[in-house]
Design a protein that fits this description.
By secondary structure, the chain is α/β, with parallel strands linked by helices. Helices cover 37% and strands 23% of the residues. The chain folds into two domains: 102 residues, Roll (Urease, subunit C, domain 1), CATH 2.30.40; 291 residues, Alpha-Beta Barrel (TIM Barrel). It has 15 helices and 17 strands. Helix 2 packs parallel to helix 3. It is globular, with a radius of gyration of 21 Å.
Length: 430
């Protein structure tokens, strides 16, 4: 399959812009980028007039089944939100409900230009199936908790589920599905479980997804418990030997940031969720200065309440300006990179996240000829501050179009909505 984008404006992952360009996709990869129309015949030619072609977007931290709880637990701080509402609701989960929610989430992400996401949850077989059906990419992890001090790997059912998940699905669907390990958080684990989970990750070259210093109380209670911060706790117990995807990172110390940087960890900025739950704001400027790879995440729809990653890029940009007073510290390209290339790096996808010849054709085409985007002086600035998910005209993963001009190509959206509505009608009555 050969698809040619002609006379289109390209926004690269580093914020650079090429106008009136040609880009050719052959099968799953980008084969040509240039100012001259390539020779040959093509299965599809797409006119780029008024359009902006971007690398696909990465959602670095989410829980896709939590669309079931969108709007269910509002106006509460994180601890009460979890213990009074979310944990009891999650106790009612069953495979069909998770699958219906994951399908709805996949459609929402595709419509918002997401090409890949990192997920931490349970009933992961259902999440894998929904992801494969949709055509998206994902790094999926089975959330693990442990409250027994001397727990052993062979007695940890959640860890054993993670191992089985790895054996069944890692690098399946032509590499679109990757399996990470997961440690839910410092407050929900034990040193022993940290060690055998990280041992397995190191042995098999896997990443580890964690929640890290999301709230001030989480951070301070760890210091009271162990005499170290959550980041230092994880370092002491070997977790940073593997590539770590650390969600939130709101209350890090300077030393915590150095630990993340020296170990090549990724910090995932979840501005909407952290604001809505009153958790605070990541120290983005300091993390960037420390050299940490930083990406964007939505968290789950229960705390956001959408999984629109474009919204997070805009919010991250204006939050940084508002909290520091330094409006010129980062230009728009910094946030484009967070949204694209840094996400691919986080997920260990060496041939993705960039618009380059030979790379995977994970692309998002935006319609820039809309009321809220005109005029366009700088396409990169307009992308960050003017566009939203309504601008998404096409989402492509591995050269396959998943969504175009309001039409889902891989999903029966009416069936997905009907199945989801049927689940939610009776979910809290069970």
């Amino acid at each position: 399959m050969k698809t040619l984008f002609e006379r289109i404006t390209i926004l690269f992952e580093n914020g650079e812009v090429k106008r009136d360009a040609y880009l050719l996709v052959e099968d799953e990869r980008i084969s040509y980028i240039g100012e001259e129309r390539p020779d040959g015949t093509f299965d599809r030619t797409i006119c780029g007039e008024g359009k902006l072609l971007c690398p696909g977007f990465y959602n670095g931290h989410t829980h896709v089944p939590m669309t079931l709880f969108r709007g269910y637990a509002e106006n509460l701080p994180l601890s009460r939100w979890l213990h009074e509402k979310i944990f009891p609701a999650e106790d009612k989960l069953y495979p069909e409900a998770v699958h219906a929610a994951a399908m709805l989430s996949a459609a929402e992400m595709i419509k918002c230009g997401t090409v890949s996401f990192s997920d931490m949850y349970f009933f992961c077989d259902e999440i894998v199936d929904a992801t494969v059906q949709s055509g998206l990419k994902a790094n999926i992890s089975r959330s693990t908790v442990a409250f027994t001090p001397n727990i052993k790997a062979e007695d940890d059912s959640r860890f054993l589920e993670s191992v089985e998940l790895f054996k069944k699905y890692h690098n399946t669907a032509n590499g679109r599905i990757k399996i990470d390990m997961s440690i839910h958080a410092e407050y929900s684990t034990m040193p022993a479980s940290c060690r055998y989970i990280s041992d397995f990750a190191v042995q098999h070259g896997l990443g580890i997804q964690i929640h890290l210093s999301e709230t001030r109380s989480e951070h301070e209670e760890c210091i009271s418990r162990y005499g170290v911060t959550p980041t230092e706790f994880f370092e002491q117990n070997g977790v940073f030997r593997a590539p770590v995807i650390a969600a939130h990172c709101v209350h890090l110390t300077d030393n915590d940031m150095q630990i993340l940087a020296k170990n090549g960890a990724t910090a995932v900025h979840n501005p909407a969720s952290n604001l809505k739950l009153g958790s605070g704001v990541m120290r983005l400027s300091e993390l960037a200065k420390a050299g940490v790879n930083i990406t964007l995440g939505t968290d789950g729809a229960a705390s956001n309440n959408t999984i629109d990653i474009m919204k997070e890029a805009y919010l991250a940009a204006i939050l940084q300006k508002g909290t520091t007073g330094r409006t010129d510290e980062f230009n728009s390209s910094f946030f484009v990179t967070m949204l694209t290339a840094n996400g691919a790096k986080m997920q260990g996808r060496a041939d993705a996240g960039h618009i380059k010849e030979g790379y995977r054709a994970d692309l998002v085409m935006l319609d820039m000829d809309m009321l809220h985007t005109l005029p366009i002086y700088d396409p990169c600035d307009s992308f960050l501050y003017c566009t939203n998910s309504s601008n998404v005209a096409m989402t492509m993963v591995d050269g396959k179009i998943l969504y175009e001009n309001g039409e889902f190509k891989t999903l029966d959206i009416e069936k997905i909505k009907a199945d989801f509505k049927n689940i939610t009608k009776t979910y809290f009555q069970n």
